[in-house]
Write a structure and sequence with these properties.
Elements lengths: L1 H30 L4 E6 L1 E3 L5 E15 L5 E6 L6 E2 L4 E5 L2 H57 L5 H56 L1 E3 L4 E6 L6 E2 L5 E15 L1 H4 L7 E5 L8 E8 L10 E8 L10 E6 L6 E5 L4 E3 L2 E8 L2 E6 L1 E5 L3 E6 L6 E5 L11 E2 L3
Parallel strand pairs: 1-22
Antiparallel strand pairs: 1-21, 2-15, 3-10, 3-14, 4-6, 4-9, 5-8, 6-7, 8-10, 10-13, 11-12, 11-14, 12-13, 15-20, 16-17, 17-18, 17-21, 19-20
Helix pairs in contact: 2-3
Amino acid sequence: MRKGWMVLAALLVLALLAAGCGKKKAGDGASSGPPAVQTARAEMGVLEGGAVITGKLEAVQQANIVPKVPGKVARVEVDVGSRVSAGQVLVALENKDLADRLNQAEAAVAQAEAGLTQAQAGLKAAQANLENARASLAVAEANYNRAKELLAAGAISQADFEGRYELPYKQARQQVEASSAQVEQAQAAVRVQEAALAGARANASLARTAYEDSFIRAPFSGVVTARYINPGEMAATAPVVSLANLDKVVVKATCGEKLINQLKVGQKVKVVVAAVRPEPFEGTITHIGPAAEAQTKAFPVKVEIDNPDHVLKPGMFAEVRIDTSSREQLLIPREALVRDGESTFVWVVKDGRVQRRAVTAGESDGKKVAILSGLEAGEEVVTAGYEGLAEGAEVRVKGE
């Protein structure tokens, strides 16, 4: 009996040992097998809806408004979100002394204008006197010439000639000379008054400019996006208000060399701003850079969008969709493209092992990406499960 129990115990121990060994081997086999990956083949095709280039929205006009002259703030007429028109006062500085100077300068202008009017009247009178003197001289000269003939003929005496004809003639000539001198003096007085008026007007212009500079105005119509100052503070060389024209916004994006020659200024494009709505906005290409940027090797592109309701805000992410439906390219799923800093690569599966392959990527439609170099049609690339892969590692493709 005792011997039977011992045999049963030994058999039980052997069974447990066999079960444990079997589990360990099965577990070892699972952990040491190749990792599973998902793959897709590179194929020639056409991007859906064309290519997509991305960028951020900016206001078509924006500025930090800085005062022309320093001063203490008297009033701030706007706040963040205020809509303003070009020329509207945003901030007013204290300007009583400037207003007083302007009033004094304008009074000086009025005084100079009165002086000029008086001098011009004097010149006019002097010119009239000169004309009368010249007319009298003409009469006296005619009488004088006739009297000389009468004297020569013995019709009048020498005394009569000198008293009645020669003396009036000499007096008329002297009067013309005196009147000419008065005209010259009057003209000089007019020039002096004209110079005084010009100086007074120049001073008034400077005073008016200084006074107007105490009002900080909007250079264009737009929306106040920031306010940096309050009444009582000193305004100097720092911005007091930020202003943006949101009636139009611009997408600043970049585009690769394979796509740039398909674009032209004035071309209509669709722009998707997912933060606002799924339906695209219509934009117009307004600028295409003539050369690639040195750092990104891409060409800058600007797209303007009408924004009458101001729903599009600066800083929002935008996708510009370019119609390239007629061009066939080598395509792979977007998730197969791996970025490592500035370089891009894919994992190519060949004979059950992976190879890291550097590629040059082109435009994308959000689902697939065009490969410009480094890959051939029909090659199999990893789309999922490439984390932790190493060059030459063995893999197992899911579904095979």
